[in-house]
Amino acid sequence: MSDEDLKISRERFGKLLKKLRSRSGLTQQELTALSTVGQSTISDIERGKKGTQRDYIVRLDSALNARGVLTSAWDAAFSDGGTSAYFREVAEAEQTAEEIREYALGLVPGLLQVEEYVRAISTLARPKAAPEHIDKTVAARQHRQQLLARAHPPAVTALLDESVLLRQFSDPKVMDVQIQHLIDLSRQPRLRIQIIPLRAEGHAGLGGSFTLMEVPDTGTFAYVESQETGFVLKQADVVASYEHTFAELRSAALPVPESRVRMEEIRGMIA
Question: Residue 93: which of 19, 178, 193, 187 has the closest Cα?
């Protein structure tokens, strides 16, 4: 991470800590008493002036009853754990997001991927990567997914082009396990998975995958990604355009129960 990226990450994390502390109604002195983390350290973190060790963040998270949000945001921003530098802002935002809307044209969204799928696509993308690098990528993806198991997870809507489910790998078990996982996830109350059938004529999403994320006190931003980089888009007119596209795609998608039936049919075809 460059010095400038580190500075930006520290500032974002500091704002998150201050917001969580304010919501808890605690002063820095009171948080110090509860966490045994020095007030000067808390002040420096909130102002983005310095980093700190993970143990302090764990103690602050516990004192604030943040349910792992603070610790997960720290891991996403600062741990050397398989998260691409350009994705760190999005990974941090996921931890406090109220709503996540994803449209997938090529791959299953990262929050919904099983280990076998992560390993397969990571190896295809970087065939010369060392096994430990792939292991880090898998671990980072699994860590992100923990937010779906929280008592109050964000509302997630995933629209999958049917072609995503028809992708074949050398090991047929990959898609078999992945589709079953999607079927299981589709029964969670705050997670909607809908399939856009191949018969949908020239739908609005042919331009590529994207994510819309709503974060408290920040608003909604769009995120688009290519093979080697990704971009966070916050301009109001650009975000509105992606929201319009998502609404069109959702109208073309099968309802949740029918989507589940279609996933079961596709899994039966490859099993």
Answer: 19
* Number of domains the chain is built from: 2
Contact 138, 115 (CB under 8 A): yes
State how far the alpha carbon of 7 is from the alpha carbons of 41, 78, 157, 159, 169, in Å: 16, 11, 32, 35, 41
Q: What does the alpha-carbon distance between residue 170 and residue 92 come to, in Å, rounded to a whole number? A: 34
Q: Model pTM?
A: 0.75
The kind and range of the H/E element at 222 are strand 219-225
- Give the whole-angstrom CA distance, residue 60 versus residue 6: 21
Residues 201 and 252 in one domain: yes
Q: Judge if 231 and 117 occupy the same domain.
A: yes
Average per-residue pLDDT in the chain?
Answer: 88
| Position 192 pLDDT exceeds 90 | yes
- Domain residues for the domain of 43 are 3-79
Closest by CA to 71, choosing from 83, 86, 89, 59, is 59
CA atoms within 13 A on the CB side of 63: 23
CA neighbor of 140 nearest in space, from 159, 126, 164, 119: 119
**Confidence category of residue 80, pLDDT binned at 50, 70, 90:** low
Region 97-103 average pLDDT? 96
DSSP 19: H
In a domain, 84, yes or no: no
Nearest to 252 by CA among 100, 105, 112, 111: 105
Cβ contact 143:81 at 8 Å = yes
Question: Amino acid identity of 187?
Answer: R
Q: Is 17 a residue whose pLDDT tops 90?
A: no
